[in-house]
């Protein structure tokens, strides 16, 4: 079983839709959870960071962590064409170990 | 501007040649990383370095080599031993003990 599983999509939604992106992980030692957004042919940029179960909101984006289920989600409200990108979840278990990335989900928001 | 600079952006090489990708950061970050990204594969860790003159292998280090002689620089050499080197290479850095890492813009390597 891979450490982090993420559905690669592609996912296509109409503008204004609520988008749900998800990852599952296998190691309960993972404590820190991140979402990165990557536009085509660019480096990933950090979108959200959280380290506890529950929700964290930043504008139209909400990151949700359920440690009991080993499940993390990113919700995008009122999706825009500019949200079209690949979204990568990333997880680590301590400050000095490298991040483990999901494969990324490719999202297209259609105007 | 502060950031991570990777060069070149695009590189073509003949099979059997070694090639070195440059990564420089002026963020005063301690740790630096090299990832490889292939379609449908996500990011795979090649090498990482937490301090100068020290580095560790990642998941796919075979066919690659690195050095960390300066805090700001972490070049990656793709050797002729790497069987399938055509890919998008990403350099990243972070403050030691912090959980988030920051990426450069990447280098596209095509071997023909």
Give the low-pLDDT segments of chain B.
none
Counted beta strands of chain A: 11
Measured by DSSP, the beta-strand proportion of chain A falls in over 45%
Q: Specify the helix fraction band of chain A.
A: under 10%
H-E string of chain B: EEEEEEEEEEE
Pick out the low-confidence regions of chain A. none
Round the Cα radius of gyration of chain A to an integer and report it.
Answer: 13 Å
Molecular structure report:
The complex is a heterodimer of chains A (111) and B (112). Chain A has 111 residues and is an all-beta fold. Chain A contains no helices and 11 strands. Chain A has strands at residues 4-6, 11-14, 19-25, 32-38, 45-50, 54-58, 61-66, 71-76, 85-92, 100-101, 105-110. Chain A is globular, with a radius of gyration of 13 Å. In chain A, 36% of the residues are buried. With 112 residues, chain B is mainly β. Helices cover 0% and strands 52% of the residues of chain B. In chain B, strand 9 and strand 10 form a beta hairpin. The radius of gyration of chain B is 13 Å and the shape is globular. The mean pLDDT of chain B is 93. The interface between A and B is medium-sized, with 23 and 27 residues.
Q: Can you summarize this structure?
A:
Chain A has 111 residues and is mainly β. Chain A has no helices and eleven strands.
Draw up the topology in text:
The complex is a heterodimer of chains A (111) and B (112).
Chain A: E1 4-6, E2 11-14, E3 19-25, E4 32-38, E5 45-50, E6 54-58, E7 61-66, E8 71-76, E9 85-92, E10 100-101, E11 105-110
Parallel strand pairs in A: 2-11
Antiparallel strand pairs in A: 1-3, 3-8, 4-5, 4-9, 6-7, 7-8, 9-10, 9-11
Chain B: E1 4-7, E2 10-13, E3 19-25, E4 31-38, E5 42-51, E6 54-57, E7 64-66, E8 76-78, E9 87-94, E10 102-103, E11 107-111
């Amino acid at each position: 079983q891979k450490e982090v599983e993420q559905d690669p999509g592609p996912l296509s939604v109409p503008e204004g839709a609520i988008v749900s992106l998800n990852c599952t992980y296998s190691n309960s030692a993972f404590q820190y959870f991140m979402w990165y957004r990557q536009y085509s042919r660019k480096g990933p940029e950090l979108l959200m960071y959280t380290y506890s179960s529950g929700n964290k909101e930043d504008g139209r984006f909400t990151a949700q962590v359920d440690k009991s289920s080993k499940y993390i989600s990113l919700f995008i409200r009122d999706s825009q064409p500019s949200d079209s990108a690949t979204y990568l979840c990333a997880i680590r278990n301590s400050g000095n170990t490298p991040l483990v990335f999901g494969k990324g989900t490719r999202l297209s928001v259609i105007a | 501007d502060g950031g991570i600079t990777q060069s070149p952006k695009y590189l073509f090489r003949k099979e059997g040649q070694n090639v070195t990708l440059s990564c420089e950061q002026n963020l005063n970050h301690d740790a630096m990383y090299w990832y490889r990204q292939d379609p449908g594969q996500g990011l795979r860790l090649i090498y990482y370095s937490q301090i100068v003159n020290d580095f560790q292998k990642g998941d796919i280090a075979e066919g690659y080599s690195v050095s960390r002689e300066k805090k700001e620089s972490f070049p990656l050499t793709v050797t002729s031993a790497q069987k399938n080197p055509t890919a998008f290479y990403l350099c990243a850095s972070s403050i030691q003990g912090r959980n988030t890492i920051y990426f450069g813009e990447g280098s596209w390597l095509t071997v023909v």
